Amino acid sequence: MGDAQNPLEGRRPLALAAADVFQANALAGKVAIVTGGGTGIGAATARQLGRMGANVVIASRKAANVEPAARGLSAELGRDVLGVVCDVRDRAAVDALVAAALARFGRIDILVNNGGGQFFSPAEALSPRGWDAVVNTNLTGQWAVTQAVANGWMLEHGGAIVNVTMLSHRGFPGMAHSVAARAGIEALTKTVSVEWASRGVRMNCVAPGLIASSGFRNYPEGTFVLEDLARRVPLKRFGSAEEIAATVAFLVSPAGAFITGQVLTVDGGQSLWGDSWIIPDPEPMPTVELPTEWWEEE
Ligand SMILES: NC(=O)c1ccc[n+]([C@@H]2O[C@H](COP(=O)([O-])OP(=O)(O)OC[C@H]3O[C@@H](n4cnc5c(N)ncnc54)[C@H](OP(=O)(O)O)[C@@H]3O)[C@@H](O)[C@H]2O)c1
């Protein structure tokens, strides 16, 4: 069949050339906001997107995180990096973040909702304040930034959003508040990616497994032995912040142009095997008796 008879003729996008996928400046001329971009996964992501040519805006609560990271990345890239102090739980601060990004760079093509956090607690011991803090940050806060960026720029001009979540599809014992919030973000992503597809906005999630980053310093000493946790990962190691950054970069780049509404798990196989929360054995353990078939009974 010749091309003239092909019903997809004229609607088929040109195949991406290798240079479009891997070129050093794949994000040149783009502008990216990275929340939590002053530390760990967010800082690695801001750096990765900047190295691919994007102008970067780093945002989080503490000036002590935002300012040195913005200064350091700016020095490395040799161009302006904007640092904005913003608590994603504060809608006025979120609106100010979007306004500041537009005022400095004139557009917002990429949003990485990475700012977040949680603490270990048995579900029954979670205080209302602890629950609210985690859900307001990891669910409502991520959505607040998304909605502000969408209404402020992307719904008119298109864009790509990546939400950094966590392994949620088997639940996450010990983190009921955070997994509920992250599962909410993943459901939101599947929903909004469809609503906004015709507006040229893509939205995906990256669900990291165990990543050796600053986030682990937030847990009290002795919460876990890192080497023991690494044993529970089929690849027998933690991931790096750079490996998450590379995945985010792939999704927002031309290479990810046909991917939307997905959750990409980056966990060395952890979610397919093993456990990270040990359920205590009862004493004594129930005995296991295998039943005989009825026709074998006397
Ligand atoms: N490391 C892992 O193994 C792992 C696994 C699964 C998921 N994650 C998730 O990946 C993300 C990055 O984690 P990480 O390991 O890089 O830890 P991290 O260094 O603690 O990063 C969290 C970042 O979020 C910012 N943040 C926290 N609350 C915020 C708020 N209300 N508004 C704005 N920014 C806020 C923090 O900066 P400020 O304190 O300055 O606000 C910080 O930069 C987090 O959402 C984390 O839960 C990490």
Q: What does this entry show, briefly?
A:
The chain is an alpha/beta fold and 298 residues long. Helix content is 39%, strand content 14%. A 7-stranded parallel sheet has the order 3-2-1-4-5-6-9, with helices on both faces. It has a two-stranded parallel sheet with strand order 7-8.
Task: List the topology elements.
Blueprint: H1 18-22, E1 31-35, H2 40-51, E2 55-60, H3 63-77, E3 82-85, H4 91-105, E4 110-113, H5 128-157, E5 159-164, H6 176-195, E6 201-208, E7 211-212, H7 226-231, E8 239-240, H8 241-252, E9 263-266
Parallel strand pairs: 1-2, 1-4, 2-3, 4-5, 5-6, 6-9, 7-8
Helix pairs in contact: 2-8, 4-5, 5-6
The chain binds NADP nicotinamide-adenine-dinucleotide phosphate (NAP).
Q: What's the CATH architecture?
A: 3-Layer(aba) Sandwich
The number of domains is 1
Q: How much strand content do the residues show? A: 5-15%
CATH superfamily: NAD(P)-binding Rossmann-like Domain
> Could you give the count of β-strands?
9
**Helix share of residues?**
25-40%
**Order of strands in the sheet with most strands:** 3-2-1-4-5-6-9
The CATH first-level class comes to Alpha Beta
What does this structure look like?
There is one protein chain. It contains eight helices and nine strands. By secondary structure, it is of the alpha/beta class. The chain is globular. The chain has a single domain, classed as NAD(P)-binding Rossmann-like Domain (Rossmann fold, 3-Layer(aba) Sandwich), CATH 3.40.50. α6 (176-195) links the parallel β5 and β6 (201-208). The model has no long low-confidence stretch (mean pLDDT 92). It has helices spanning 18-22, 40-51, 63-77, 91-105, 128-157, 176-195, 226-231, 241-252, and strands at 31-35, 55-60, 82-85, 110-113, 159-164, 201-208, 211-212, 239-240, 263-266. The strands form two sheets. A seven-stranded parallel sheet has the order 3-2-1-4-5-6-9, with helices on both faces. It has a two-stranded parallel sheet with strand order 7-8. α2 packs across α8, α4 runs parallel beside α5 and α5 packs parallel to α6. NADP nicotinamide-adenine-dinucleotide phosphate is lined by residues 35-36, 38-42, 60-62, 65, 86-89, 114-117, 137, 141, 164, 166, 208, 210-211, 213-215, 218.
